[in-house]
Amino acid sequence: MGARWAGIALFLLAAPAAWAAFRLRLGTPPRPGPGFFPFWISLGLMGVSLALLLEGRGGSGGVAGRFPPQGLRRVLALTTSLAAFGVLLPFLGFPVTAFGFLLFLWGAMDRQPLPRSALLAGASAAAAYLLFDVVLRVQFPRGPWGF
């Protein structure tokens, strides 16, 4: 029954989003407009909602019946860390925030040893900074350190 309610809720969120995105200029794949990606993402979410509705018809053996309690804690920890990433990004800048987020993912979520987690997080944050900021020239928020 939980999958059915999740499907209904997801559809009720995705359908208006698809309509609003459609009202924007969609454009074409080579030249997408402002509504192009939100429209297709919303359609994908509507497809997922229909799959949840169909799964909910199958009885009690759906996803909700297989979801372990410790999984909920991991989902909440990941969601909280993503929210913290978004809140801290304007204040600390991309490299420092990405390093902290990745350190949390590898250290706390994946339970890697701290030296390994720090090395992976530092290398990944530096590579992402170089790729996006230096090569692609994507403007990320600058932290108090100027990068």
Structure description:
By secondary structure, the protein is mainly alpha-helical. The protein has two domains: 2-66, no CATH class; 69-135, no CATH class. It has helices at 2-23, 36-56, 63-66, 69-92, 94-109, 114-135. The chain is flat. The termini are far apart. 13% of the residues are buried. The mean pLDDT is 86.
How would the blueprint of this fold be written?
Layout (H helix, E strand, L loop, with lengths): L1 H22 L12 H21 L6 H4 L2 H24 L1 H16 L4 H22 L12
Helix pairs in contact: 1-2, 4-5, 5-6
Mean pLDDT: 86
**Unreliable residue runs:** none
Spatial extent as radius of gyration: 20 Å
Number of helical elements: 6
Question: H/E series, N to C?
Answer: HHHHHH
Kindly report how far apart the N and C termini lie: 49 Å
Number of strands: 0
Total count of domains: 2
